[in-house]
């Protein structure tokens, strides 16, 4: 009898734990969130949630709220839907390009870092165009929009088309003085397409974009290349009139090593970047009479092309006064005394720095037929 009484007491103690249960039908689980500016710079928040009701025709429910904070937007969205809004499962955070052109947007995300229930693994993505076009995109041949966007960014990152920046990584980049933030960039035309990478300055303001080809070079310089890295090399030969053949080489790096050395001379920093690449030849798009270029000549062509394009890219960074490579981390590590003098104006110091880059490449595979 005593055992029965004890068992009843344990069951009664466990039952109150069910009082806060929430059914899926009664929740609006926000998987896709967006912040943009409309009209006279009015903040607008978007939220896309999956619909679990079998009677509903749409798979997602979109809502928008014109408020000044994320917390206020949650209350506003709760008044527009018949479910309780939950933001802790956000997979993708979209930021309008118009919003990113302001320097004071980052504090809008304060709730994401202050609320322990808010995931910091959400991918942060810049949108070139109105966010409403993204949230209204619901093709029948693709999965739910939040799932589609997260897979799109992950796949593009693996193929070195763009970067993959989470909320947690964005927070680190914003407060790290030795680097500047980079986030993915997409655009809605007929479909949603990854454009490349958006470059932000230290205040978070949008300053420039990188194309898909430039992003591959950025990831080489960042030592963050994915497995599927292929590069197109431009052959410096005169193009015959009327020819449809563009002289290019396709290479697949197999081994890639990057060494960065720093120095401080004459009141300015110096960086020497040396890249060593072993690659296989994917394609050699050349006229028949020029197809028999020897391997040393091909290696020289690859060296010169990569060196020129990377030097142009670094010049673009210096002109925009940004440091997505993280050269400031080397300055702080090896020249700490000089770094402390310029750490609050590092982008200005980098714009005056001397950066030299060179490549040494080696062909390991030419293919079964030459």
UniProtKB/TrEMBL annotation:
<keyword id="KW-0472">Membrane</keyword>
<keyword id="KW-0564">Palmitate</keyword>
<dbReference type="InterPro" id="IPR057336">
    <property type="entry name" value="GerAC_N"/>
</dbReference>
<protein>
    <submittedName>
        <fullName>Ger(X)C family spore germination protein</fullName>
    </submittedName>
</protein>
<dbReference type="InterPro" id="IPR008844">
    <property type="entry name" value="Spore_GerAC-like"/>
</dbReference>
<keyword id="KW-0732">Signal</keyword>
<comment type="similarity">
    <text>Belongs to the GerABKC lipoprotein family.</text>
</comment>
<dbReference type="Pfam" id="PF05504">
    <property type="entry name" value="Spore_GerAC"/>
</dbReference>
<feature type="domain" description="Spore germination GerAC-like C-terminal">
    <location>
        <begin position="195"/>
        <end position="367"/>
    </location>
</feature>
<dbReference type="InterPro" id="IPR038501">
    <property type="entry name" value="Spore_GerAC_C_sf"/>
</dbReference>
<keyword id="KW-0449">Lipoprotein</keyword>
<dbReference type="Pfam" id="PF25198">
    <property type="entry name" value="Spore_GerAC_N"/>
</dbReference>
<dbReference type="InterPro" id="IPR046953">
    <property type="entry name" value="Spore_GerAC-like_C"/>
</dbReference>
<keyword id="KW-0309">Germination</keyword>
<feature type="domain" description="Spore germination protein N-terminal">
    <location>
        <begin position="20"/>
        <end position="187"/>
    </location>
</feature>
């Amino acid at each position: 009898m005593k055992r029965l009484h004890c068992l009843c007491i344990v069951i009664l103690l466990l039952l109150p734990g069910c009082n806060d249960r929430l059914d899926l039908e009664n929740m609006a689980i926000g998987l896709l969130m967006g912040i943009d500016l409309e009209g006279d710079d009015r903040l607008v928040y978007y939220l896309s949630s999956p619909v679990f009701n079998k009677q509903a025709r749409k798979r997602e429910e979109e809502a928008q709220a014109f408020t000044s904070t994320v917390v206020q937007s949650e209350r506003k969205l709760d008044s527009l839907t018949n479910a309780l809004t939950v933001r802790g499962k956000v997979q993708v955070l979209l930021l309008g390009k118009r919003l990113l052109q302001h320097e004071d947007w980052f504090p809008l995300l304060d709730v994401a870092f202050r609320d322990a229930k808010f995931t910091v693994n959400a991918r942060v993505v810049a949108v070139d165009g109105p966010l409403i076009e993204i949230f209204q995109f619901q093709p029948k041949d693709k999965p739910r929009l939040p799932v589609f966007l997260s897979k799109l960014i992950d796949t593009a990152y693996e193929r070195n088309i763009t970067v993959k920046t989470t909320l947690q990584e964005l927070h680190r980049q914003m407060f790290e003085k030795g680097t500047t933030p980079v986030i993915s960039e997409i655009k809605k035309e007929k479909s949603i397409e990854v454009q490349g990478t958006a470059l932000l300055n230290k205040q978070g303001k949008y300053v420039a974009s990188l194309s898909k080809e430039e992003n591959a070079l950025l990831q080489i310089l960042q030592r963050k290349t994915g497995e599927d890295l292929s590069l197109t090399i431009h052959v410096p030969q005169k193009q015959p009139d009327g020819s449809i053949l563009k002289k290019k080489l396709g290479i697949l790096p197999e081994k890639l090593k990057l060494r960065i050395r720093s120095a401080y001379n004459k009141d300015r920093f110096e960086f020497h970047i040396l890249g060593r690449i072993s690659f296989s030849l994917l394609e050699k798009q050349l006229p028949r009479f020029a197809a028999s270029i020897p391997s040393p000549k091909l290696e020289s062509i690859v060296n010169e092309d990569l060196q020129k394009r990377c030097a142009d890219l670094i010049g673009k960074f210096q002109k925009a006064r940004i440091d997505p490579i993280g050269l400031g981390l080397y300055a702080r590590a090896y020249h700490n005394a000089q770094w402390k003098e310029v750490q609050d104006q590092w982008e200005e110091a980098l714009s005056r720095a001397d950066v030299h880059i060179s490549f040494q490449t080696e062909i390991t595979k030419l293919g079964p037929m030459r």
